[in-house]
Amino acid sequence: MTEDGPVTATLHRLPDLVPPPTELPPRTAAVRAEVRAFLAEEQAAGRWTPRADVWLSGWDERFSRELGRRGWLGMTIPQEYGGRGASALDRYVVTEELLAAGAPVAAHWIADRQIGPTLLRFGTEEQRQRFLPGIARGEVYFGIGMSEPDAGSDLAAVRTRAERVDGGWELTGTKVWTSGAHRAHAFFALARSAPRDEQQRHAGLSQFIVLLDAPGVQIRPIPLLTGAHHFNEVVFDRVFVPDDMVLGEIGAGWKQVTSELAFERSGPERFLSTFPLLVALVGELAGTSGAERSAREIGGLVARLWTLRRMSLAVAGSLESGQAPELAAAVVKELGTRYENEVIDVARLLVATPPDPGAEAGFARLLADAVLHAPGFTLRGGTNEVLRGIVARGLGLR
Amino acid sequence: MSDLLELAESIFGDAASNDTGFDAKLWRTLAETGLARLTLPEEAGGSEGTLEDAAVVLTAAGAHAARVPLAETDLLGGWLLHAAGVPLPDGPLTAVAGELEVDGTTVRGELRRVPWARAAAGVAVLSGGHVVLLDPGPAEITEGTNLAEEPRDTVAVDGPAAAVVAAPDGAAAELRLRGALGRSLLLAGAARGALAAGVRYAGERVQFGRPIGRFQAVQQQLALAAGEVAAASAAASAAARVAADAGFAAPSTRLAVAAAKSRTGEAAGAVARITHQVHGAIGFTREHDLRLWTTRLWAWRDEDGSDAEWNADLGATVLAAGPAGLWPLITG
């Protein structure tokens, strides 16, 4: 059409940025109703109060065990390992109900979201028997040991060394930002099992299952800016990991870690961290004289939320059918975590109540927690800048 | 690629040009291949496709900036006339909600911003409790356009209509939703077209010794545009899916279409802004084809209800449902 040539060729080269729409199977309506009724009952009994960013901060082992008792943890784990053998879409429904309610899910979060599926994919029979039943019962909690002081976005720069010793490996190094390590039982540590090769930076990395009470493991708090203790530094001083606790293949750590990213990046936790604040905002506005003026802003937030959920479901459906839509997953996380911040912006515009970190509950407390936790939303699990880099690569720009 | 997508891509791709006005040749092809009346029943000359099929074809039409009243013929005018029991005239149709004085089969009044009226074989009007079919021939047509130079004409009538019948129940609400759904799908397509233009240009334009797409600053901007395109596509196609499954009378469809028109409208502004910035001055000229998509994005975001209008609608629904009703609305 112009000197640039027709755009048709570029159009056809553009990747699919989002999989086709997925509808939840009708059977999921029953489990949704059960979870909702349970959550209403728990709240009515005053067992917990809705909070923002619960999957980082809401540690409640009684609640996790209760979910396990009801069959709502490790749902995709086969029955022989103590799970239900349900589909990822069933798990999706339970998870989004828990997050939307602002329920305390942090204790089991990592174990349920990624440790279970990873053990099923890469774990040995013995490892599965050992950990999966406890995960499904809500009794065994895990962390993730990837980041290090000099390896954040550049994960291939990890320096924790795994040295071959008789009967296993010896780990030495430091992991940081490990959520819940002070209360979890074990974590997956990514370590360098072969010397670094500048030509193949992703080679020579391996994953190990490390028990957090093993000799030589030191766990120190890294308080958040609020002073709250969720993050930790985990230091290994020649920690022995037996051969039977190697996860997957030695040297395949990078492939194993990145294969889980589409699961980790596209879930409802990437856009629901501030949903309890949105609920409180609607509560502040509904029935007031200003409601009509605010409707437009509320509608804008709801349109974005509805869309993000549809995108996230489309990725979940695609994962369920065996694809790995990494590009779409990166897009969900990039848009979703910015949306979590936008809820705060709109809440501040529409309601004059200042944030109050000392309040027991309600709008002021949710706003305080949301503001103070917001910096993490666009950092954890891959910064938005890194995610946009992944999208740019998908577009063929790099 | 599905067969339907492949067919649509090939037809609209072949027709792509930077001309203005009704593309009669493209319309003949669409009629011959059954795409012009895709979702209508066979007795109305249609192909009995689903709304999801329409989603595929309208998105492709938007991506190639097709100059035909496809949504107007298939989703709007054709649907309204058929639902009211009026036989459909051959050729392209258009539809509008307006106010006409109706006296038996004689109608009088003025309809504003009627899409493609000058090219249409019939204008379907929803006026109060009536569905009126107008033959544009005897009507007085004053030409107007939207920002993309698509016809948005004023139609003045004073005389006999081709048909006047009672409107089916709920026609006004459904016509509004159908219009917004069709426009959302076109917007999602146009956003993808603009993104493709941006990616193409970033790969070709060399400054500081390398294609500008090699600079992270440009990559990050195009990635943001891609996110908006993804959101627009997801919203529009999911709304089509919900409407196909639940029907236009369902509250879930009303919410889905409102969200889709709002989200595609929001994406439109962002994608147009970013792709123009990436193109520099050349994209701002008549000779360059970027305007084919960006002017459509700017025009369409304000047609069939702007994002502001649908947000107000959505927000009122949410505030009426109250805090406990919000999450059930989202998941319903």
Helix-strand layout with pairing:
The complex is a heterodimer of chains A (398) and B (332).
Chain A: H1 8-13, H2 28-44, H3 54-57, H4 61-69, H5 88-100, H6 106-122, H7 125-137, E1 142-145, E2 161-165, E3 168-175, E4 186-192, E5 205-211, E6 217-222, E7 231-242, E8 246-247, H8 253-259, H9 261-265, H10 275-285, H11 291-320, H12 326-350, H13 363-377, H14 384-394
Parallel strand pairs in A: 1-4
Antiparallel strand pairs in A: 2-3, 3-7, 4-5, 5-8, 6-7
Helix pairs in contact in A: 2-5, 6-7, 10-12, 10-13, 11-12, 12-13, 12-14
Chain B: H1 3-15, H2 24-33, H3 51-63, H4 70-83, E1 93-97, E2 101-103, E3 106-115, E4 122-127, E5 130-134, E6 140-142, E7 152-160, E8 163-166, H5 171-204, E9 206-207, E10 210-211, H6 216-246, H7 251-279, H8 290-300, H9 307-321, H10 323-331
Parallel strand pairs in B: 1-4
Antiparallel strand pairs in B: 2-3, 3-7, 4-5, 5-8, 6-7, 9-10
Helix pairs in contact in B: 1-3, 3-5, 3-6, 4-5, 5-6, 5-7, 5-8, 6-7, 7-8, 7-9, 9-10
Describe, in short, the structure shown.
The complex is a heterodimer of chains A (398) and B (332). Chain A has 398 residues and is an alpha+beta fold. Helices cover 46% and strands 13% of the residues of chain A.
At CATH level 3, the topology of the largest domain in chain B is Butyryl-Coa Dehydrogenase, subunit A, domain 1
Counting DSSP E segments of at least 2 residues, the number of strands of chain A comes to: 8
Q: CATH superfamily assignment of the largest domain in chain B? A: Acyl-CoA dehydrogenase/oxidase, N-terminal domain
Mean pLDDT of chain A: 95
Instruction: Provide the succession of SSEs of chain B.
Output: HHHHEEEEEEEEHEEHHHHH
- Envelope shape of chain A: globular
Describe the protein in words:
The complex is a heterodimer of chains A (398) and B (332). Chain A is α+β, with helices and mostly antiparallel strands. Chain A is built from 14 helices and eight strands. Chain A folds into three domains: 28-143, Butyryl-Coa Dehydrogenase, subunit A, domain 1; 145-254, Beta Barrel (Butyryl-CoA Dehydrogenase, subunit A, domain 2), CATH 2.40.110.10; 257-394, Up-down Bundle (Butyryl-CoA Dehydrogenase, subunit A, domain 3), CATH 1.20.140.10. Chain A has helices spanning 8-13, 28-44, 54-57, 61-69, 88-100, 106-122, 125-137, 253-259, 261-265, 275-285, 291-320, 326-350, 363-377, 384-394, and strands spanning 142-145, 161-165, 168-175, 186-192, 205-211, 217-222, 231-242, 246-247. In chain A, helix 2 runs parallel beside helix 5 (88-100), helix 10 packs antiparallel against helix 13 and helix 12 (326-350) packs across helix 14. The radius of gyration of chain A is 22 Å and the shape is globular. Chain B is α+β, with helices and mostly antiparallel strands and 332 residues long. Chain B has helices at 3-15, 24-33, 51-63, 70-83, 171-204, 216-246, 251-279, 290-300, 307-321, 323-331; strands at 93-97, 101-103, 106-115, 122-127, 130-134, 140-142, 152-160, 163-166, 206-207, 210-211. In chain B, the strands form three sheets. Chain B has a four-stranded mixed sheet with strand order 1-4-5-8, covered by helices on one side. In chain B, strands 2-3-7-6 form a four-stranded antiparallel sheet, with no helix packed on it. The longest helix of chain B has 34 residues, at 171-204. Chains A and B meet through helix 1, helix 10, helix 11, helix 12 and helix 14 of A and helix 5, helix 6, helix 7, helix 9 and helix 10 of B.
